[in-house]
Design brief:
Layout: H1 2-22, E1 32-35, E2 39-46, E3 52-60, E4 63-66
Antiparallel strand pairs: 1-2, 2-3, 3-4
Amino acid sequence: MRKWIGPATVMAVAFAGGVLWAQPKNVQPPPQIISGADFGFRVDSVGADGAVSGRIVVRQKGEWVEVRLAGGPKRLELK
């Protein structure tokens, strides 16, 4: 029985080390969304001065989806 204590201890320590090594290291919290019913603002970061940066999102089929705004300069036609 005593001859099994050493190998069993080594196996238990190796198993515990493997479990701890395999755990995710950088688990980030879900993004904070400031919203109404279907329109919101997802906070990406807050600067040292308190300035908030983020993206405009809408709820579509129960998930928040980033909005891609269509717009920009348009060519003017003279008649």
